[in-house]
Amino acid sequence: MRKALLLLLGVFLSFNAVQAQSIVINKLLNGSNDADGRTDAVELLVVQDHLDIRGFIIKDFENNITTEGGRFEFKDEPLWRDLRKGTTIILRNLSGLQGNYVQDTDPSDFIIDVLLQNTTYFTNRGGTAIFNLTGNDMVMIKTGEPTGTAGSIHAFAYGSAANIDASAHFASTTSPKIKLVYANPGGGYFYYPTNPTQNVSDYNGTSATASNAITNANDAQRQWGFGYGAGNRNFIASLRRPVVAEGPVNLPVVVNKIYNATDTNDGKSDAFELLVVQDHFDMRNLVVKDFNDNLVNDTGGKYRFKNIAFWADMRKGTTIVLRKTQSQDAAYVEDTDASDFTLDLLLTNSSPYLDNVALSGHEFNLTMTDMVMIKRGDINGAGDAIHALVSNNGNASTAGSFFNAIYSRALVSAETNGTGFFLYPLNPTVSIEDFDGVKAKSSTDTDRKWGMGYGDNNRAFIASLRAPAAPSDLTAAAITATQIDLSWSDNSPNETGFEIERSTDGTTFNSLATVGANVTTYSDKTVVGSTKYYYRVRATGASAASEFSNVAEIITNIAKVLTVSFTPQTVYENAPLGTVAGELTSTSDNASATFTYSLVSGDGDTDNAAFSISGNQLQTAAALNFEAKSSYSVRVRSTSSSGHFLEEVFTVAVQDVNEAPTLAAIADQVACNITQTQTIALSNATPGPETTQTLTYSVASTNSALFEELSITPGANGAAQLSYRLKAGALGEADVTVTLKDNGGTAHGGTDTFTRTFKLTSVALPTATITSNQGTQLSKGLTATLTASGGTSYVWANANGIVSGQNSATLTVRPEATTTYQVTVTNENGCTDTESITLEVTENYSVLQAFNLLTPNNDGVNDKWVIQNIDFYRNNEVKVFDRAGRVVFQQKGYRNTWDGTYQNAPLAAGTYYYIVDFGNGQPLFKGFITVVRD
């Protein structure tokens, strides 16, 4: 109906115009003269439905419209993808003017209010250029490159005629544009279209003006998002109204009645009625108001609901009657108790429930052509309206009518609302849909039915809102063949009782009984056996009943369970899930009884989790292990078709199935290519869980050319020995597989065989060699160096004369007699070889070397007289003589110990003569020695 009314009033845009102009610049604010453009703002208006502005550029031209200013690109964000027509986008530079400014990115109310510096939604395409509205400027919305005017969609230029006309940027703008010539613009001015035709064509030409009448402190009065001035407001509303009309009527609160009691200017005795439609609705801070002067001026009364708990939780169906102070009479008493869904309050300046927020002299005074509105947000204008009740078609034919600025739902009467008249909704469909469109009527009835609804349909609608909540979870249980017990959940705090209805066909229900409030059970003792009954319950209230609960059905065909039996089937361990373990059967005293089965907790339910029931079959729900458990216990309930049940405990026996033998893993082997038999110890050889079974072993390889022999010898306690002998010179790899087989067989999916495979690699032995730096003949007393090669590590066997290097490749020896030295060489694979060398030792007195200097001063050098190698020629006698031939030292088996003393006293420095006698006819060894003293 609203859409039809608007068509009659001629406020729709033509399709072609909307298509040609998708978005326009609707308002500009030069908030200050700051060089950074702080507090400047731009308002865009979407005039094409479902518009995508991603990639669009917003920019300005500074320095008298000669220079590129700030440039911002709308990012690829969902916010910009599908804008409904009538959406206003307020773009603020750096900050909002309100101290508590919060960005608004929810377009559901047709308003977006964001900062240009919000990097989530904008990309700065102007570099260091500043978006700063100046005394002469032009703002443009465009596509394409951020520089220049190509791709312009709309522009708004203001300033002196000389500056605008001289601007090449203005001249090159071929899109629709507004040119506003204004004498002395500056900080604090805002610029807006006047919309004389309330059509998109108003945005091409000079239909705009400027004002600095509103200070930045009162920025909200500039009506951001709603339009400024009647023409602009009405145009924006005309765009939004069809969008709102698309959706369902969904109103939390409506104006249900307005009463024009008198024709006095103070609105004496005037009153109106609100109706809460949404349950638990919070009305705090909402505003109620009216518009005087045939709706062309916003000079009526304005009251704001106080921010108190009283309004925080209004129940649906509550009527709120608000009367002017003068309406009270001797019998009038305010009604502040909403428990009966009615409130009746006075609009006084000292009301504890509402604040009078209108300007001085603005009175709530209903006239013949008026509108009562409930709204959110600012007290001024019609923006953020929730609902309105309007007389005389809202004076819509007058362009300045505030009715034309409404895009919310409104209940309209074509009649005027003269003195003594009141308007009320006709409610033709008894639904919320009736509160939008020309569906109101006037009456002069003196019984206005405040709080109850006027007319049958309005009363019925209010009663439907006040109806208690329907009960739920209705259940029925057959106790005997002649008794059914009902129970339900009470979901309402305000029912007066419950009505119970019964049916035998599920279609036609008849009243059975009523019970009081808060009762949730009932016993029906009027039923007969073997009959199916259907029940439903509803709550009753003071003015209406709730919807019915769910329907519960039950049969009085009583069937007690007498026995429950279990017929088992053979179940083998490790059977797949769902294997049938047996079938359940029941008996009853009722031959027509049917039964359902379930696993229940209680004594004997130990293994319920291992089973499930499908129909009357007990099935496995887990892998059963005979070795862990050979019998399982379950508790089963049999429930008859009448709801009676009996529980029994049953045992399920599990049969063994042969399981595979076991054998510990065998590590891969590296074997030296020797011809002796080698062995590998095997462990954990068992027949599996069936420990009494016997095992047989076998072994095979993939390279028979590698082996002379390959066999297995069983042992005790799970041990066995694998023996093998390699062929001489045979090198390479073989996969050796050991197979164990028990005597349990493979019946019913059993397994009697198990294998282990490992890799055996035959590697070559090292070749050991020994060399001597002295050859194999050595004079007694001399030292020889033996060097072994052919491996990576070396160990020499113990032998006489070893000096050092027994665990290295190089051995130092000084044998006293002929000696054989043997080395064991190991290669990188751990394989070994041995080699030996014999050094033939001969006596050779020429190896004796006597030092001819003795300096016994305890400095560690020449403190003793040394004859090299004399330790290996022990049959000796040494004599030392002074110049007089006196023997000053004599010793047999000399061990290099003389320190130049005689009779424990130091000899004098000088030269002495020595003789060494080896006997056996050997030549004497003689010479001189010099004793030196400090």
TrEMBL record:
Residues 470-559 form the Fibronectin type-III domain. Gene3D superfamilies: Cadherins (2.60.40.60), Immunoglobulins (2.60.40.10). Keywords: Signal. The keyword Signal applies. Residues 1-20 form the signal peptide. One of its GO terms (cellular component) is membrane. InterPro entries: Cadherin-like_dom, Cadherin-like_sf, FN3_dom, FN3_sf, Ig-like_fold, T9SS_type_B. SUPFAM superfamilies: Cadherin-like (SSF49313), Fibronectin type III (SSF49265). It comes from the Bacteria. PROSITE patterns: CADHERIN_2 (PS50268), FN3 (PS50853). GO terms for biological process: homophilic cell adhesion via plasma membrane adhesion molecules. This is Gliding motility-associated-like protein. It comes from Rufibacter quisquiliarum.
